């Protein structure tokens, strides 16, 4: 009986060690994935940086025009207009000369569509913040 109990405790210890290793490996893998995502976001922000002030200006102009016309539902209209603008920007980058500028991002594994989708997501978040600030003024 004593030997069975000893073996039972050894099996439990072994299972706990294996579980501990799996958890540490899972945490390490998720940490590495997070770091790669952070690198992706930094690269997308690097791409979006020249568009930042243009985006804020477009948001302010659209907000002022829609408010002066007393149109309700400002946010969806601004985001839809920016979606069209990003669509046109995407079409411009289909040109071979401008497509070469995206080689840097392609080398890091970011597709053209992913780059523009992340940029639009960042722009949408920035639009929310800008509209919130404009409503306070």
Overall description:
With 137 residues, the protein is mostly helical. Helices cover 85% and strands 0% of the residues. The protein has 6 helices and no strands. The chain has helices at residues 2-48, 52-68, 74-92, 96-99, 103-107, 112-136. α3 (74-92) runs antiparallel to α6 (112-136). The protein is elongated, with a radius of gyration of 25 Å. The termini are far apart.
Secondary structure: elements and pairs:
Blueprint: H1 2-48, H2 52-68, H3 74-92, H4 96-99, H5 103-107, H6 112-136
Helix pairs in contact: 1-6, 2-3, 2-6, 3-6
**Major β-sheet profile:** none
| Shape assignment | elongated
* Rg over alpha carbons: 25 Å
In sequence order, what are the helices and strands, one letter per element?
HHHHHH
* End-to-end CA span: 79 Å
Care to count the β-strands? 0
Q: How much helicity do the residues have?
A: over 70%
Instruction: Name the average pLDDT.
Output: 82
**SSE class:** mainly alpha
Q: Keywords for this structure?
A:
6 helices; 137 residues; mainly alpha; single chain
Q: What is shown here, in short?
A:
The protein has 137 residues and is mostly helical. It contains 6 helices and no strands.
